[in-house]
Write a structure and sequence with these properties.
The longest helix is centred in the C-terminal third of the chain and has 13 residues. The chain is mostly beta strands and 199 residues long. A hairpin with a 2-residue loop joins strand 9 and strand 10.
Length: 199
């Protein structure tokens, strides 16, 4: 899945359920990927009252051939474990670093928050690249990183879930000030990365 998520990723978010207790996310992989859009549910600490959000960002594999210096989301495997804070500091344009671990957990580093995501017992883990893109959209929606409690990839017959097991720092949502509104039949906020989509 990591290779499928390299490039320009688009995530559309909208409030879910009558109590607006979560967000539904439709994630469209980069144009060159041979993959269908994915559906996920993000559950936070409080109901989401904001507009729908469309987030387009550049996701780059840390072990890839290049593009890390302009990435909005950096993702990698166990070889990068323990380096999340340094990677975020070394790439000032990046909002999210997500690194998968050998135990199936994913460690994420965002401005003001260091979170460890673990799959539920007997669940397959979510790829770091997918989680990183969903967290980027969460930030663009103007939500605090520590307010996100769980992420579930909705698949036929069930869901693959990750829950935040530990973390420090609440942080504030980033990116909401750069979002531009557009006319629509429902409220939408749109944010597009300034990074080039090809190099």
């Amino acid at each position: 899945m990591n290779g499928l998520m390299d490039g320009q990723v688009r995530v559309a978010l909208a409030a879910a359920g009558p109590d607006r207790s979560g967000l539904l996310a439709q994630l469209e992989p980069p144009a060159g990927a041979d993959a269908a859009p994915l559906l996920a549910q993000l559950t936070g600490a409080a109901p989401y009252r904001g507009p729908g959000v469309v987030d387009e960002h550049l996701s780059v594999d840390l072990a890839g051939p290049g593009g890390q210096e302009v990435a909005d989301v950096l993702h990698g495997g166990p070889g990068f474990a323990g380096c999340e804070a340094e990677l975020l500091a070394a790439h000032p344009g990046c909002l999210v670093v997500a690194v998968g671990r050998t135990d199936g957990s994913v460690r994420t580093r965002l401005a003001g928050a260091d979170l460890c995501w673990r799959p539920l017992l007997h669940e397959r883990p979510l790829p770091a690249a997918l989680l990183g893109s969903l967290l980027h959209a969460w930030l663009v929606a103007g939500l605090a990183p520590a307010a996100l409690h769980s992420v579930a990839l909705l698949v036929p017959g069930g869901a693959l879930r990750l829950t935040a097991q530990s973390g420090s720092g609440a942080g504030s949502g980033a990116g909401s000030g750069t979002a531009a509104r557009r006319r629509s039949s429902f409220a939408v906020r749109r944010w597009t990365s300034g990074a080039p989509s090809s190099w």
